[in-house]
Amino acid sequence: MIRSEVIVVGAGPAGMNAALHAANSECEVLLIDNGNRLGGQYWRHMPKERDSLNYSLHYDFAKAVKLRDAVLNHDKITVKSQAQIWSATANDKGVVLHALAPRNLGDLPTEIVFETQHLILATGAYDRALPFPGWNIPGVMTPGAAQSLLKGHGVVAGKKMVIAGTGPFLLPVASSLVEQGVEVVGLFEAHSPKRWVRHLSVLLSNLGKLFEGFHYAWILNRHAVRMKFGYAVVEAHASDAGILTAVTVARIRPDFTILVGSEKRIECDAAAIGWGFTPDTSLAGALGLPQKVDVDGAVVVSVDERQVALANSEMSVHAAGEVTGVGGSVLSLHEGALAGLSCALLRGKITEKQYRDSTKNIYAARLHAEKFARVLKDVYVVPDGWRNWVTPSTLICRCEEVSCGQVDAAVDELGARNSRDVKLFSRVGMGMCQGRVCGRNIAGYLGTDDADRIRNARRPIIAPITLGELAQDPLL
Amino acid sequence: MKRTADAVIVGAGIVGVTTALALTNAGFKVVIVDRGSVANGTTGSGEGNILVSDKEPGAELELAMRSRDGWFELALDVGDLDESGGFELEAKGGVVVSRSEDGLLHLLKLAQEQSKVGIDTRALSPSELLELEPNISKEIPGGVWYPQDAQCQPMLAAAKIMRVFRSRGGEFHRDTAVRKIRTQAIEGDLSVTGVETDQGDISTPLVVNATGTWAGDIAKMARSSLPIAPRRGFILVSVPAPHLIFHKVYDADYVANVASGAAELQSSAVVEGTRSGTILIGASRERVGFNSDLNVAILRQLAAQAIELFPILATVQLLRAYSGFRPFAPDHLPVIGEDATVKGLWHNVGHEGAGIGLSPASAQLIVEMITGQKTFMNPSAFSPGRFGNHE
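Predict the joint structure of the above. Result:
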């Protein structure tokens, strides 16, 4: 068993910054992450030797390198990479995490139990995919998957690609793909840019973001790729061999219903389609942290202004970054800093006055970033109109191959009313992903309430573990 | 909501829906109420066991034998025109094994007694065992084959029975919590006159308590009592791994664990493959109230015991785990019959881990008693009066 004064789970922007701020205030910090390298999904990158390529793939990679090196070189921070937490419990005295990890670099993973009185959760988010006819054809993926193929392995997902969905993330993905020689035959944003009009003041007070947008627009323009607004991919087509050959795009209304007659077919061999992000609350749910449904419909951990999700006189659990609500890397960095400093305060490493002095500017910066995040959620909202894109034969759960028609039958014939009923009657969400991909869509498809969404996001087993690994007692 | 009914069933688990259907078939106007939805309690956490192998000769085994046939009759009655009833009913057969020579002798003796009362049993040599289950540990000295053991998908079964119940005129009110059982002294006897729910009241002379683990709460609402307590069990579910395990295979220790009343943790390996390809692993028993927190130590023990029976499972991934609460009566027997003090209040509860298997016969028995017919077996072992007054 390994104990640490503070444990941070997740080495993305929020987790790294939390670790750094706690460590700078003299806390002993253990940073646990399931990746091979620090950075998380957002700063997923190549090994250090290839930093030159990393700089070209990331708009703000200098910031990532600075933070990564500060974390790696800090004598108060121990990093445990490749550690997959599969079970976790919290009680009045602290938190116990069960993880599979190599004991030493290069070992096979075995179970390691971690204990702490102060946990900072920064488990991030993953892409959201929406179902439509053909979304399960190989070659249809999320922008995050295309991005991680490129950044993690240096592989491009296709030669002729369509990129679609909604949100600012489509721009960096399209830019890095065109720069690596992919022919982007279509770039489609579901919403109209007019939605920014009522938020112009916020946009102008975030010039950095605006410049980042221009940076991508400039790259895309150089490759003659122009974004079309108000379109979505509503169908994908496969060859007899089951390979993606084309997608159908259609004009959609602001509520995401299709304008009939506007459909057109575009030949492509890969399509990256993303509808924002879903926070990864698996660990939070296992720990029994308070959760709520955010304005974008995502289940998130609910925290107070100090990023505290749960605390008593002996222990605390903080949460920072996307797991408390999708808001981007800048907001995540601020939340991480606040969580790290709050831990230091609870450990008595800094005084209340020191906490106040050092957080004053961060609070202001977080507020500013939160405003921007709220605007993004409003501009790039995903309304329920996507339910009209599916047909009874469209799969809604890919793992168990359950179609929308089977879900309809569970509702109409067997009287299912909530996510759990539908799961028990149709096996939806019972497969490998345990609802991580489909759970949110099923709740949306059924139109269930917040309590149902939160209950449905609970998964006591956080990640699969072999029965052989489970049977080994790590304490022996 | 209907304001009057011939009978109100409280609880839409497997016992509630089978009882409701049997009463409807007998001509009653029946309303089911449940504070949640169909199969939201213990039924929704079960493996769907329909077993005759795990009971010693006696009243419960007699009920189990009738019930096993009852399931196949039910599949024909409510099913989707296939022999599985649309709820994965399957006579997959049970294989009971023992890891020690001593244990095997006990097991063979039990099988002999069971066969005397009509259970189909067959002793298995190690090579016969390997023929049935090629991946079983070669260390196991032998076992017994019970071809009558069966399984169904209990949530689907409950939902399909509910569908037929409603198509025959039955009424179901979900999200309807019972607040009170109304009673009145009639000719000196305290008798049921209706139920009060948070969605309105229903007048009825007959209430069937089918709330399983929560049965004591309902009894209390009629100022009676029942000593039913939760006995927690965990189930591990693997990723789909078809063609590894073909029957329900369990350690003979399981029979002893079921029969024990101890509060502390007991566990014995119960391993089975399902139609969907996943492998289910049980079974733990402990009395810890309604606490559903995941207990890693128990999961570990269940995994280790399963691997002892099937070493190949060490490489199979665990996908999820969940717990459920068996309705436990002090003598492990179900409670089927009219309340000892309140006329018109009937109980069909306390089936512990066998509620899925025992429900069709329990429904038949209680309906035969309610309608005053000759019962197919002597129900006195299941009498609610056997516990005395617990108030």
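DSSP finds 15 helices and 25 strands in chain A.
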